[in-house]
Amino acid sequence: MNHIQLVEGDITLATEDAIVNAANPHLLGGGGVDGAIHRAAGPQLLAECRKIPKINGERCPVGEARITTAGQLAARYVVHTVGPIYHSDPAPAAHLAAAYRSSLQLAMAHGCHSVALPAIACGVYGYPLSAAANIALQTCNEPQFKHLHIVFYLFNHEIAEIWRQTLAKFASS
Ligand code: APR
C-alpha cells in the first residue's frame, strides 16, 4: 500500500499528473470538489467538458470516467468521474469501485504516473465514509495500480482520520 498517500487538504493545489474530479453525468460543474476544480481551472475546463459527446443524455455515466486538460491547474489532466448517489443507486459499492478504477485506468492510459483523488461520492452523494474508504483503498490496491503514485486529498480531519484508520487496517492485514 506504500504507493498510496493521504493528504488533508485541497485537491485544487495538487501537483500530481492527473486530478480526479467527483462530477455528475452532465459534466457541467457543480458544488463541492467539482465546483472547486472548475473555479481553480478556469472557464477552459467547462469549455472542454461541453465538447464531450452525450450518450443517452449523459456525458459520463456513473462509474465511468472522461479526461480533459486541466486549464490553470498544476496537473496535466482532469479525470472527471461520477460516483453513485448512495441512497438511490442500485449498486453503490460496485459503482464507487468502478469510478475509482475507471479514473485510474484512464489516467494511466494517458501516461500519468501520479494521480490525486478526492473522496468520491462522500459529500452530496452521501456515501457513508467508512464504507467508501474501504472501497476506495481496496480498489487503489489492485495489482494493476501498484506502480501509480496515488494521493488522496481529504478535505477535513474527520474523513482524513477514517482514511488513515482504514489504510492502517489494510497495511496490517
Ligand atoms: N478538495 C478535496 N476534497 C474536497 C474539496 C476540495 N477542494 N471540496 C470538497 N471536497 C470533498 C468533500 O468534503 C467530500 O468529502 O470531496 C468529497 C466529495 O464530495 P462532493 O464534492 O460533494 O462530491 P460527491 O459526493 O461525489 O457529489 C457529486 O456534487 O458537486 C456536485 O457536481 C457534483 O453533482 C455532483 C455531486
From TrEMBL:
CDD domains on file: Macro_OAADPr_deacetylase (cd02908)
SUPFAM superfamilies: Macro domain-like (SSF52949)
Protein name per UniProt: O-acetyl-ADP-ribose deacetylase (Regulator of RNase III)
Domain Macro: 1-171
Database matches in Gene3D superfamilies: Leucine Aminopeptidase, subunit E, domain 1 (3.40.220.10)
Source organism of the structure: Shewanella fodinae
Pfam family, one: Macro
Coiled-coil annotated spans: none
Highest taxon listed in the record's lineage: Bacteria
PANTHER family, per the entry: GANGLIOSIDE INDUCED DIFFERENTIATION ASSOCIATED PROTEIN 2-RELATED (PTHR11106), MACRO DOMAIN-CONTAINING PROTEIN (PTHR11106:SF27)
InterPro entries noted in UniProt: Macro_dom (IPR002589), Macro_dom-like (IPR043472)
